[in-house]
Structure formats: structure tokens, C-alpha cells
Amino acid sequence: MLQLPLVVTAQVDLLLVLVSLLAFWTRLSHLNYPNAVVFDEVYYGQFVSLYMKRVFFIDDSGPPLGHMILASGAYLGGFDGNFVWNRIGAEYPSTVNVWSLRLLPALCGALCVPLVYLLTLELKFSHLSALGAAVLLLLENSLIVQSRFMLLESVLIFFVLLAFFSYLRFHNAPSSSWSRYSWLILSGVSCGAAVGVKYMGLFSYLLLLVVASLHTWKLIGDKTISHMNVCVQSVHRVLCLVVVPVLLYVFWFYVHLSFLNRSGPHDQLMSSAFQASLQGGLSRITRGQPLEVAYGSQVTLRSSVSQPIPCWLHSHKVNYPIRYDNGRGSSHQQQVTCYPFKDVNNWWIIKDPGRQQLVVDTPPRPVRHGDVIQLVHGMTSRFLNSHDVAAPMSPHTQEVSGYIDFNVSMPAQNLWRVDISNREAESEVWKTILSEVRLIHVNTSAVLKLSGVSLPDWGFRQLEVVADKLFKAHSSSLEWTVEEHRYGTSQEQKEREAELHSPTHIDVDRKISFWAKFVELQAQIHLIGNPVSWGVANLSLLAYQLLAVVYLLRRRRGLKDVPDGVWDQFVCLGCVCVGGWLVNFVPFLLMDKTLFLYHYLPALCYLYLLSPALLEHAHTHLLRYAHQPLRALCVGALAVLLSIFLTYRTFCPLTYGSPELSAHQLQGLKWRDTWDILYRRR
């Protein structure tokens, strides 16, 4: 029977509650100040506006999840995307809910503080060390700045910390508890989210996989566990930490591509098929085009390799020079190039070599894989030709030209065999946009190819097109796609020219699969860190490395300074913290790119985890019998914490942009000559 009264007993960690409240206060208070675009808000804001309007875009700096999170905050605040993100410092109008734009990054930044506290406990250090790590993160000015604006570093750090906390929570839980696998799933989800926000998250994800692999290897060697149990646990780890993140990574792109279905500024970076699947843009031009290319079809041919700049097969009424600058001669026939702009001279007509007509039959006769065709330039009526004459810029390949009969011993060689490289996936019939075609020169077996080299001034700096015998079978530079297509109806040249200038539209829905798209893709605010915290973090890193070397050398000699359990804890601390710093710092040393302070913040968070834990290790195991040094260590730690707080308060005007400082006061905050602090004289 039910016993009355009903009693609920709960344990509340007051330190955790305290640091959490302080974190929310430092990150969320006066979030709408300044009411102006700050730093990279001008960059991310453009993508948020495109999301609000469902306009397709790609950001080569990272996957789409981060933009989706920022857009979610904007949506909650009723943002309609109608704001021009054209400069830093531009004032937000009253119709834009600035607090909502910045809310989710601020929440993530605030949650990082209690996560660091909990993560330190999962590393099996004391609540005092956990408090120290939380305070270091709480009072880090640069992290506060990154959290209070529409930026992604705080979101990335949140998911990375959540991934490690969840995994260690799973690892430390009793093996008999099946509920612990919920933590493993959460870890996998967090890993997928971290990589989905920024590719930087991949470094921490790989580190977590290394730690999990070491734990799994130890599990495999445990003879007290049955073979079946080992297999089951190993499979669970693979599913949660490998399969789940990969599926989520793909899912972020699925949502991104499903939601953004309108033509936008980045369309031309994508293939013709991709562009045609979007509303507006190329789809308005190609809507209703005939699907099957037939004899008499008028087409534009886009090179499959012409990315990120689109490029179409082109010719014009200008001939190759009789001799090039290096003394080599040419055929002096009409130039054939690849032109990066829409132009009427990009149109070609598919001709049957056995017939003279340049119009489509009724019913149309489709061109199939293996058929031999001629390509006639629409505006000049020159046949696409190649022969044993060296190309102008790539002399190891053949020249491609529009054939002119100069009554010399140079007969026309203008037959091309159609080779549809993706016919197994599509069809044996040449299809608009869908088919990837190689045009093989019948006389020489060379393949029409974009060399990618720019021609000199005599070629108007357009791109060179050649015929290459020494081609690689699967090179995308050999493939061409019909982008614009109509059925020709005019046999006479004048009528045909008029026809080529006129657009054609027929309503036909054309779509490509998600997988095809996914494969083609995959105020006075200063960002300044807390100098004292950074100094402590770097000293901790150096101290850990020196201590690890001493421990290893002494253990090699058979001297164990700490018990095996403490040694395992020390090694785990190094794997997570020093390893996390390494994988998030070293890659940037190898990158040829402009680096900003925020690139270092994920690595810094690992050192903030390390510092108090290493201090506890020294206090508990190295100085436990030395009373004077122990007392000095405690006094020094308190002094450092006080210095960190005072430094945080000193730089608060730069972190929050308030209160307003004079030029003299700002100059006083310039502790080093290498620091750049901008200020206006009044």
C-alpha cells in the first residue's frame, strides 16, 4: 500500500549551481549590447539571412549545423532575413531582435562552465579542482566575448566538452548498468554535432576515438569478461562512436539541402544538375528543356571540371595566330576555347554526319552512347575539329579548332564519338544535364579536354581546350554536360542565329537525389584573453610534460613514485587534456591561412581542465609530507585566483563594451606594444 507522506530526497551540488548561475550571468546579461554588428557577425549573419529566405548557399569553412543553430535563434526572434550584413559596426534596426540572434551561442558558452566542472569530476579529481577549472573558464574574457555574439566557437566547445563528459560518464559507470549506454549515445551525438558545427571539431573527435580505442583494447584483454560480452560492448562502442556521428554528419546536410531549395549566389559553384534542382536561377532557364539530346539539338556544353568557375565550350570569329611567340606554327583556323560566361557563342548543334540537315526530326532521333556525331558552331557554322597540330599552350596535346578549308593539305577531321561515362547510372541515351559525356576524336582517339591554361591576349584570356591522347580514364576534365538545350527548327543560318538568341521554356520538373548533392558538396568590443589565466595554462602544460618525463624515467628504473591507480589517472589526464591541446593547436601551425585568437580557444579549454587537476596531483601526491611547500602552494593558488579575477575585471570594458572608456583609459589597457587596441579620439 502507498505509504504517506511521500518524501523526495535530492542531493544538490551547490558549487555546481553557483558556477552555473555565474556563467549565465556573465554570458547572457545585456546580451543585446552593443546594438550593432560585431566582428564575424557580419559573416555569419549573411548565412542566417539566406536561411530565413531558404536560399541555397555553401560555406567552405564548415558544415551546416552551426549555421542552422544560429538560424534557429533568429527564427525564434522573428527575424525575416531582411537586413544587409555589409559592414562591421552597422546598427541593427528596431525590427531585428538582437537578443534572439545571440541567444543560442550565449547559452552554449554558459553551459561550458558547468560542463568543465563535471568533466573534471569524471576525470576523478576533487570538487575543489572542478571548481578551479570552472572558475578559469568562467573568468576567461575571450571565451565570454565569443559566447556573447552570433559566433560559433562557444557552440563548438560546448559539443566537444559534452562529448568527453558523456563518454567518461559512460566509462566510469558500473558495467552492469545498461542505462550507461545512454551516455555513450549522447557522446556519439555530441561528436557528430561538434564536427557538424566546424571541421575543427574533427580533431577532438579523433582524440576521443583514440581514448575509446585504448579503453576497448584494455576491455578485450580482461579475461574476467566473456567473449560474447566483449563482442557486444565493442559493437556498441563502434555503433555509438563511429556510426552515429557519421549518420548525423550526413543528416545535417540532408536537412540543409532539403530546406534551402531556392537559387542563390553560390549556384555557379555547383554542377548543372545541382543548379537545375533549385527554384529559380538555372532552373528558370532550363525548365522544360527536352531531356534527350537528338540529332539537330542546339546545346551548350559545360566542362565538368570548371569549378569553382563555370566554363562552356565556345568559339568566335577569330583565328589562331599563324605563329605563336615561341615560333611554333598553328593551323590558323578558328579558335575554340572555354568561356566562363553565358554567351550566344556557346551554342553548338548536334549533327548527323550522314545528313546535311541541322534541325530535329519528327519524332526526334536521340543520340546514344557510341554514336558518331559532328558538332557545328551555331553562330559561325564551323565544325568542331582536331588534328595533328600542337595546341597553343599545351604542345603535348592536339589543337582543337573550328575548321576552315584554306585549300591546303589539311582535310577536315571533325567526327566525334559520344562516350557517356555515367551511362550505367543514367541511360545509354544522351540526356540533358544528367549525362556526363566524353567526346572522342575518331581520327586520332584523342579526347576533348579542358586544359585549364589561360590563353594570351590573342585568345582574350579565355581557357584553352585541347584533344588529349594521354588521358586518365576517370579524369573529370574530359567530361562535358549539356546544360542548355533546345530542339532546332531552323535550317537557314539567319533564322538559326535568331533562334539561338531566343529563350525556350517548357514546364518539366527536374530533380536530383540528396546523395548526388551531398557527394558534390561534403562597438568597442575586443577579443582579448585573460593574460593571467593564459599564463597559468601554459605553465601547467609545461609542468605536466616535465613531470611526465620524470615519472617515465623513474618508472623505467623500477621506481614508482605514485600507486598504479594514481598513475593511470595521471595518464588519462594527459591523454584528454594535453592530447586535446595538441590536436587543436598543432594543425593550425601547418595551415597556410590567417589565424585569429578564436582558433586557439578550443585548445585553451583543455589546458584549463589540466591546471587545477595538476595542482591537486602535486598537492596530494608530491607535497603531502612537506608542510612548508604545501602551505606556499595553497597561498600561491589563492593569489593566482585573485589575480585572475582582478584581470577579468580590468578587461571587462573591452569584453562587454561597457562602460565607455576614454582614449587614455584604453591606452592604459595596452599592456604590451604588440597588442592592437583601436580607439577614436574626440
UniProtKB/TrEMBL annotation:
Pathway: Protein modification; protein glycosylation. Its EC number is 2.4.1.109. Pfam families: MIR (PF02815), PMT (PF02366), PMT_4TMC (PF16192). Belongs to the glycosyltransferase 39 family. It catalyses: a di-trans,poly-cis-dolichyl beta-D-mannosyl phosphate + L-seryl-[protein] = 3-O-(alpha-D-mannosyl)-L-seryl-[protein] + a di-trans,poly-cis-dolichyl phosphate + H(+); a di-trans,poly-cis-dolichyl beta-D-mannosyl phosphate + L-threonyl-[protein] = 3-O-(alpha-D-mannosyl)-L-threonyl-[protein] + a di-trans,poly-cis-dolichyl phosphate + H(+). It is a multi-pass membrane protein. One of its GO terms (cellular component) is endoplasmic reticulum membrane. Keywords: Endoplasmic reticulum, Glycosyltransferase, Membrane, Repeat, Transferase, Transmembrane, Transmembrane helix. Residues 290-353, 364-421, 426-485 form the MIR domain. The gene is POMT1. GO terms for molecular function: dolichyl-phosphate-mannose-protein mannosyltransferase activity. This is Protein O-mannosyl-transferase 1. It is found in: Endoplasmic reticulum membrane. The chain crosses the membrane at residues 6-25, 101-119, 125-144, 151-169, 181-214, 235-255, 532-553, 565-590, 596-618, 630-651. Its main location: endoplasmic reticulum. InterPro entries: ArnT-like_N (IPR003342), MIR_dom_sf (IPR036300), MIR_motif (IPR016093), PMT-like (IPR027005), PMT_4TMC (IPR032421). CDD domains: beta-trefoil_MIR_POMT1. SMART domains: MIR. It comes from the Eukaryota. The keyword rRNA-binding does not apply.
